[in-house]
Amino acid sequence: MDHIYLDHAATTPVDPAVVEAMLPVYREIFGNPSSIHYFGREARKLIEDAREVIAAEIGATPKEIIFTSGGTESDNAALIGAAHARQALGRHIITTKIEHHAVLHTCEHLEKEGFDVTYLDVDQKGRISLDAFKNALRPDTILVSIMYGNNEVGTLQPIKEIASLLKGTNALFHTDAVQAFGLEAINVRDIGVDLMSITAHKFNGPKGVGFLYIREGVLLETYQHGGEQERKRRAGTHNVPGIVGMAKAVKLVSENREEKKQMMYRLRQRMLDRLTEEGIDFAINGDLENGLAHILNLYFPGTRVEALLSALDLAGVAVSSGSACTAGSVEPSHVLTAMFGSDAPQAKSSLRISFGLYNTEEQVETAARIIAKTVSGWQKPKHSG
Amino acid sequence: MTKAPEKTRVVVGMSGGVDSSVTALLLKQQGYDVVGIFMKNWDDTDENGVCTATEDYEDVSRVAGQIGIPYYAVNFEKEYWDKVFTYFLDEYKAGRTPNPDVVCNKEIKFKAFLEHALALGADYVATGHYARVEHIDGHVRMLRGVDRGKDQTYFLNQLTEAQLSRVMFPLGGLTKSEVRDIARTHQLATANKKDSTGICFIGERNFKEFLSHYLPAQKGEIRTIDGEYKGMHDGLMYYTNGQRQGLGIGGPGGPWFVCGKDLKNNILYVAPENHPALFSEGLTAENVNWINGLPQESLFTCTAKFRYRQPDQPVTVMPQVGGTVKVMFHEPQKAITPGQAVVFYDGDICLGGGTITTVLQKNYFEKLDFVQAVL
Asked: Which domains are seen in chain A, by residue range?
């Protein structure tokens, strides 16, 4: 059986060109960038070249980029580092109820330390209200963390508007752009954020590497102690092959970005059209017009998501829903719960389908047929016999 | 079975223990399309966010990886709470000693789980129970496991023929030590894992303490069957008929055994060893399930167990209307406990069973008239 991968919001396959870029680093350039000898310099050049590529892509300067192990580390570094560095100015933080757990659980940790966190509600499309945001802002607000595009439903947030509302306040503005980066062109000067988290594996780069943009002049408390790498901002030997691979992946996403985005729109629309033709009952969670091109979150009334996910996997379609607990069972999505309420059927009967560069229209056709057939088992139960 | 094994999907309930691991392995070796499912029925997450289900699920994932089968988890916490745990507490409140394993099999493993498996396209579900299913003359019967020391039909007495027609028990023909050997030979990750003991949601914890979180305990008097005050008990729910340990009473005439409870006056009755009050002549039971239908005879003899791992006892059974039954023992029996299951057998065939409601005793409790009439 051919398995069809429609879970690119979880992770993406590594681009062969990225693998090609990394192989020589694994094979030959093994030096430690912090070493002062020839081997160290060789490796050092690679990571500084990578930093330039990445900085240029987001409109930053190279020294505004620090390399991390990925999105979770970037979020932790930004939030804990900013909160600790600015606590003399206040202890209030604003975020949303639909952040990734890397942000939500870090905020909960900060609450235990005595910080006061406001979790903004979202509407049924998954978007925060700017009025609610304005009302939440206080003189002692020192940090705002609002994701660029949601990883479950794809909804984009009004980042620019929030940034302009924060002008002249004491608050730093962090955005988790992990899911958005790639298909969305993001220029940090243009959107006006102070901190931005990115991970490579969401845009056909390697796992275990990411970066944090820190606007020049912004000071964070160091969260990881050790060597003096990254200007003492992030201790630990550099993941040189990973950083090289990430830079290659960054270069690749900027090529033909609009074309790739159009392809995602086409695949997404094809899925919707085919499901409609199959006559099953479904509704869209999120906001297609104002959302990430590769994410489609659908509510299938009458289904049980755990059984649905397993049945689809057994039929060769890999999709997802919410997050799994440590014992493997699927927890109701906190994003859908925030959008529709804690008892809403959407939280128990929705799937996230997310597309990627190597998907074909044929795969989407096949997957739609399988999804429709599986869902109809609940929606149109066969009479026994 | 009409379909070829490779076209027959068998969904295995995998707990992370050695029995269900070997169950999945054997089915895979027989060529079935095997899918493993871990059931999460109880949330015991502690303040550090640690739950024992995590470790068990990791074992399922490891073993399924070794065998080469897909695996998933399903959450039945709500179903378990509503159908099993609520029953468990209600029974204690009513002064009985519940058997949650019987109800878990009836409501969760062979109902909610079976339905879940069917939604995944299962032809059969399989578990690591030591029992056998026999397809004969268009009927399905449940037989005892070949390993008499491990036979689990006692806990499966509420299954219906319709359920059994969808069930496989691949371990039914094996002994526990053979199962361990198979696991070791194939180096399954769970080969040397300790068997779980006790009620699943209580685990290794202190039973009394667990129960006290959910039910108020009321101290009361312990009296002998002749009315003599012997001391105080911690709450009637903590004691079962025949119990000797943990009474905290001694003195002349002992050792003492629990022989009854007066729920209304909150009195625990005890009797000395071999006292007639510890023996009973019969019982009544409700919620009786006859696996292959209600027996034709209005009175018949067979054997029965009143608790797990007890040798069979000869009995005379009188099925009543409304799913109840009267059972008379051929020999007086000790420690018959309301709330526990009575399960009937014809040789190796498990006929079904029910929940013990009352104990019939000659001289000491109010069922006297009936007992004499029957005897």
From this structure: 4-12+256-379 (3.90.1150.10), 16-254 (3.40.640.10)
Cα B167 to Cα B83, B109, B160, B252, distances in angstroms: 21, 11, 11, 54
If phi > 0 it is left, if psi is from -120 to 50 it is alpha, else beta; for residue A232 that is left
Indicate which residue of A36, A88, A325, A327 is catalytic: A325
Using CB atoms, pick whichever of A310, A325, A326 lies closest to residue B72.
A310
SS3 content of chain B, % helix, strand, coil (to 5): 30, 30, 40
All structural domains of chain B: 8-185 (3.40.50.620), 225-273 (2.30.30.280), 277-374 (2.40.30.10)
> Which residues have a Cβ under 8 Å from the Cβ of B244 and sit 6 or more positions away?
B255, B256, B257, B258
User: What ipTM was reported for this prediction?
Assistant: 0.87
Question: Chain A residue closest to B38 (CA)?
Answer: A328
Contacts of B75 in chain A (CB under 8 A): 306, 329-330
Instruction: Kindly report the pTM of this predicted structure.
Output: 0.90
Sign of CA dihedral A314, A319, A322, A323: positive
Chosen from A112, A329, A370 to mutate, greatest number of chain B CBs within 10 A: A329
Return per-residue pLDDT of chain A as tens, 385 residues.
889 999 999 999 999 999 999 999 999 999 999 999 999 999 999 999 999 999 999 999 999 999 999 999 999 999 999 999 999 999 999 999 999 999 999 999 999 999 999 999 999 999 999 999 999 999 999 999 999 999 999 999 999 999 999 999 999 999 999 999 999 999 999 999 999 999 999 999 999 999 999 999 999 998 888 998 998 889 999 999 999 999 999 999 999 999 999 999 999 999 999 999 999 999 999 999 999 999 999 999 999 999 999 999 999 999 999 777 777 788 889 999 999 998 999 999 999 999 999 999 999 999 999 999 999 998 876 554 3
Would you say the C-alpha torsion A303, A305, A310, A315 has a positive or negative sign?
A: positive
